């Protein structure tokens, strides 16, 4: 006689404090961009050939697409749902940050806080994304920017750069923070998947 154990796909739950922090930084970036736009020069700057850097960004986009697709497929096979972009602001990430801070406050693992400096890239990325939205309305802000001289191109290239840097930073922080508690499903109970990749991936943000 054989039995099978069913489980619910792991649905990431978002952390309200981390979401609030991210939105606050993004809003601060929007405000900074507005200040840039208000203080714009009445004389338009000339475009300098070669500053757009479209070729390297096209290469980055081509390399990133299959990698991102592979990550999405792997997560689906592991029984995980939700966008990987939301992992840094998930409830699990919040627990791991809290546990690491408590450990450091107790005199253990202080090095983790120092080593977790890449987290600053995540925070700055949220701020810089906001700056691009409103600051990019100033023609001088994008005329010689990567992806310029237009607003759409500059925004696309800067967001691509920001996502890649933030993804790298999130990967590094994931290796540094304390493991935290097992992920929980929407009912608030720990998910117990069968053997497979999902059973070995409880560390992720």
Number of contiguous helices: 7
Helix content: 55-70%
Strand content: under 5%
Q: Care to count the β-strands? A: 0
What series of H and E elements makes up the topology? HHHHHHH
Describe the protein in words:
By secondary structure, the protein is mostly helical. The protein is globular.
What is the compact description of this entry?
The protein is an all-alpha fold and 205 residues long. It has helices at 16-38, 54-77, 91-105, 110-115, 119-135, 139-142, 151-176.
Secondary structure layout:
Elements: H1 16-38, H2 54-77, H3 91-105, H4 110-115, H5 119-135, H6 139-142, H7 151-176
Write out key terms for the chains shown.
205 residues, mainly alpha, disordered N terminus
């Amino acid at each position: 006689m054989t039995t099978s154990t069913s489980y619910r796909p792991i649905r990431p739950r978002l952390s309200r404090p981390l979401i609030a922090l991210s939105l606050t930084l993004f809003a601060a970036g929007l405000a900074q961009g507005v200040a840039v736009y208000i203080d714009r020069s009445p004389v338009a700057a000339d475009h300098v050939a070669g500053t757009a850097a479209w070729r390297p960004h096209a290469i980055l986009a081509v390399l990133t697409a299959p990698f991102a697709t592979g990550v999405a497929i792997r997560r689906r096979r592991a029984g995980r749902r939700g966008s990987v972009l939301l992992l840094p602001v998930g409830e699990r990430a919040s627990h791991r940050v809290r546990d690491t801070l408590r450990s450091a406050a107790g005199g253990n693992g202080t090095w983790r806080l120092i080593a977790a400096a890449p987290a600053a890239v995540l925070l700055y990325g949220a701020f810089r994304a906001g700056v691009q939205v409103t600051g990019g309305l100033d023609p001088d802000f994008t005329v010689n920017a990567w992806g310029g001289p237009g607003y759409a191109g500059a925004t696309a290239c800067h967001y691509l750069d920001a996502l890649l840097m933030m993804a790298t930073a999130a990967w590094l922080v994931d290796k540094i923070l304390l493991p935290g508690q097992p992920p929980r499903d929407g009912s608030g109970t720990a998910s117990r998947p069968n053997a497979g990749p999902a059973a070995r991936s409880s560390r992720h943000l």
